[in-house]
Amino acid sequence: MSKPFERLPTHSKPVNYNLTLTPNLNDFTFKGEQVITVQVIEPTKTLVLNSAEIEIQSAKFNDASAEISFNTEEETVKFSFPSELPVGEGKLSMSFTGILNDRMKGFYRSKYTDSDGNEIRCAVTQFEPTDARRSLPCWDEPELKATFDVTLVVDKNLTAVSNMLEVSRTEVADGLVAVKFDRTPIMSTYLLAYVVGKFDYVEGRDADFIKMRVFTPIGKKDQGLFALEVAKKTLPFYRKFFNVAYPLPKLDLIAIPDFAAGAMENWGLVTYRETALLVDADNSSAATKEWVALVVGHELAHQWFGNLVTMKWWTDLWLNEGFASWIEYLCVDHCYPEFDIWTRFVQSDLSRALELDALENSHPIQNKFANASTENLWEALADASGQPVQFVMEGWTKQMGYPVISVASKPAEGDDSKLELTITQEKFQLGGANKSDLLWRVPIQVLTATGHKHQLMLAEKSDSFTVPKAAWVKLNPGCIGVYRVDYSASMLQDLIAALKHGQLSQRDRFNLENDLFALAAAGRVPIVQVLQLADAYKAEQFYTVWSDLLSNLGSVQVLADHLGLLDKWRAFLRQLCEPAYQRLGWDARPADGHDATLLRSVLIGCLGRAGHESVLAEAKAKFAKHCSGECPITPDLRACVYSTVLANGGVEEFEAVLKLLEKTDMQEEKVRILRCLGRARAPELRQRVLELAVSDKVRLQDTVFVIGGACHSLEARRAAWQFVKSRWSWFVEKFAGQFLLSRLVQLLCNDFCTAEDADDVDAFFKANPAPSAERNIKQALENTRLNVAILARDGDSVKEFLAQFAA
């Protein structure tokens, strides 16, 4: 049995790390020398630091040599001394060596191919949450902050960057230079960063004259211009918002060829996947520009919230990431109002959170025993707003889940000009009957057809109030509340009528269908009722509503697939999307904005994969001209064209798409193609996609998503699952302890729909535990069993509904 986790001893802490590293890009090793200024708080004969996969050749404290012992399981190193170290400051010196690993964590190796076909090797870092210890022995806990003096000894022809500005470059033996960087502010180890390799860059200064650079692979510096523009707008926005100056003299953003996450907020040196930073003016889609703006906005918010002010321990990471995930939208909305980014937030962030938190295998935000950080936040928000924030928020962070608000209306007694609304709260649960007596303090907003607004705080189980009589009444206008709404039958019909007459806002149209799909999944309304509601959305003109509607319909497609009704399901989709497609067409118009560009791709992709004849014909024609070089497809339509020709084609189309993959050196285009390849329906082509995913032709960071793209049907999903099981040891070796393993489980196992599937997944992970994916495994099993229950409850009615559509 493993020993319970223990934090590092508190008798000492770091003050400053003076670190010199010499990475070797030929044999993928590095040498290190460091002198740590240590504050000894209590007399001790030992110093315990974090260290993993590092060999320490020698160490001493001042003049006293240390005996060195490692605990591999706990990832610690103990330095023992013959006598007690005196209280006060001293110097811990050491020499060590390590490996530039290929697992995208710690100090690791990466590579790319330049335009001449040369392999360019790099050494890069990713330390969050606990991988600084793979690059240097250190106190690798967020609260144990220190300053860092970094020197990198590298080939004189390579670029070397770190958190701070370069202050000197000194030639040493064998064509090497020692690049010394200025001292950092006091900061956590997980924010330390350094990168060595060959890079181009573009640079500029923001309104506060902060030096900014965007580093790219050689020959691609123009692809850094959009991110530079975003950063130049973003940094002054945050400076004004926080009323605190950016505390460093420079800000670098750098595209890393191999990177597990989307980006990392290292102070002054923010690292990104290429697809989260680079924008090609001729070949990037509108969706990519939006994504880059959001990711840059997110990471730069961390330069204050997370870097300047840091959580005490990882249990408060939600404060760090939650705030950055919200304020990135505020920033992008300020910088690029044409993106209508808050509507996107409702779909991609709020809706997804509600989906996960309705499962039994969710978790409360806060630990059982709150620490000061959370309480301090509520106090600060209360002081700033004058509202009882802590009173309201306590239940939301300490309880798992959220409420569903049931609402019914009737004429107010004694007053024909008013309606009486009765609202009742209970925990929303996808798994059937609610057995919880949890209550929340729920701020409720109400909007009527006449524009009347009403607000109240629902703190009890139920409450009643009156509003002026109107043709319809909607709760949660603008979709800003964290709850579902279950309307009475008559109120729902009134809202559907309002929807058909164009009387609901875009976010309210989104909110109505999104809630109804969730209620259907929970068994509170029949699925067929929601499928019938979809007809009212044929006149919809906005991307976010269509995107969410089609995504939710995708969950029903899994059921139709199990029932053997995919052809009829595709016919249903064709008639649903046809009117909107006819309004929009293939070609961009001068009046089109950002939203129309995104919507066109979604509609064409859906219709193409559903076998719409004219869409398929046009996609094939455009694909042929694109492959020949006669007329390139606009970047916004490439993914939907690729997926259409693959889903309706065979070996010839598959080989043509592979040629496009081999020809491009643009990572966005590579990822676009890789995610579409799995749309090929022939089993032998699907197997080739799976084999490709684990080959050296696909970057490790993209493997999981290539496999996920090959799960477009139940048959394909089961084949991918069998493939992953057969290669499980490879996946564990490459992704152990990383979020990519949990993402693989999520993409593979979430949409099965038989008890046999669930039993197979359960048995496999009992025999092959994956601790980093434990919650995802439980959620996948829960989702599968929910699908089993939905089929038992609604399968026959779905069959009856789809019978009207000619395959």
From TrEMBL:
<feature type="binding site">
    <location>
        <position position="302"/>
    </location>
    <ligand>
        <name>Zn(2+)</name>
    </ligand>
</feature>
<dbReference type="GO" id="GO:0016020">
    <property type="term" value="C:membrane"/>
</dbReference>
<dbReference type="InterPro" id="IPR045357">
    <property type="entry name" value="Aminopeptidase_N-like_N"/>
</dbReference>
<dbReference type="Pfam" id="PF01433">
    <property type="entry name" value="Peptidase_M1"/>
</dbReference>
<keyword id="KW-0645">Protease</keyword>
<feature type="active site" description="Proton acceptor">
    <location>
        <position position="299"/>
    </location>
</feature>
<dbReference type="InterPro" id="IPR042097">
    <property type="entry name" value="Aminopeptidase_N-like_N_sf"/>
</dbReference>
<dbReference type="GO" id="GO:0008270">
    <property type="term" value="F:zinc ion binding"/>
</dbReference>
<keyword id="KW-0862">Zinc</keyword>
<feature type="domain" description="Peptidase M1 membrane alanine aminopeptidase">
    <location>
        <begin position="226"/>
        <end position="368"/>
    </location>
</feature>
<dbReference type="Pfam" id="PF17900">
    <property type="entry name" value="Peptidase_M1_N"/>
</dbReference>
<keyword id="KW-0482">Metalloprotease</keyword>
<dbReference type="InterPro" id="IPR001930">
    <property type="entry name" value="Peptidase_M1"/>
</dbReference>
<dbReference type="InterPro" id="IPR024571">
    <property type="entry name" value="ERAP1-like_C_dom"/>
</dbReference>
<dbReference type="GO" id="GO:0043171">
    <property type="term" value="P:peptide catabolic process"/>
</dbReference>
<dbReference type="GO" id="GO:0070006">
    <property type="term" value="F:metalloaminopeptidase activity"/>
</dbReference>
<feature type="domain" description="Aminopeptidase N-like N-terminal">
    <location>
        <begin position="13"/>
        <end position="191"/>
    </location>
</feature>
<dbReference type="GO" id="GO:0042277">
    <property type="term" value="F:peptide binding"/>
</dbReference>
<protein>
    <recommendedName>
        <fullName>Aminopeptidase</fullName>
        <ecNumber>3.4.11.-</ecNumber>
    </recommendedName>
</protein>
<dbReference type="GO" id="GO:0005737">
    <property type="term" value="C:cytoplasm"/>
</dbReference>
<dbReference type="InterPro" id="IPR014782">
    <property type="entry name" value="Peptidase_M1_dom"/>
</dbReference>
<feature type="binding site">
    <location>
        <position position="321"/>
    </location>
    <ligand>
        <name>Zn(2+)</name>
    </ligand>
</feature>
<comment type="similarity">
    <text>Belongs to the peptidase M1 family.</text>
</comment>
<feature type="binding site">
    <location>
        <position position="298"/>
    </location>
    <ligand>
        <name>Zn(2+)</name>
    </ligand>
</feature>
<dbReference type="GO" id="GO:0005615">
    <property type="term" value="C:extracellular space"/>
</dbReference>
<dbReference type="InterPro" id="IPR027268">
    <property type="entry name" value="Peptidase_M4/M1_CTD_sf"/>
</dbReference>
<dbReference type="InterPro" id="IPR034016">
    <property type="entry name" value="M1_APN-typ"/>
</dbReference>
<keyword id="KW-0031">Aminopeptidase</keyword>
<dbReference type="GO" id="GO:0006508">
    <property type="term" value="P:proteolysis"/>
</dbReference>
<keyword id="KW-0378">Hydrolase</keyword>
<dbReference type="Pfam" id="PF11838">
    <property type="entry name" value="ERAP1_C"/>
</dbReference>
<feature type="domain" description="ERAP1-like C-terminal">
    <location>
        <begin position="472"/>
        <end position="785"/>
    </location>
</feature>
<keyword id="KW-0479">Metal-binding</keyword>
<dbReference type="InterPro" id="IPR050344">
    <property type="entry name" value="Peptidase_M1_aminopeptidases"/>
</dbReference>
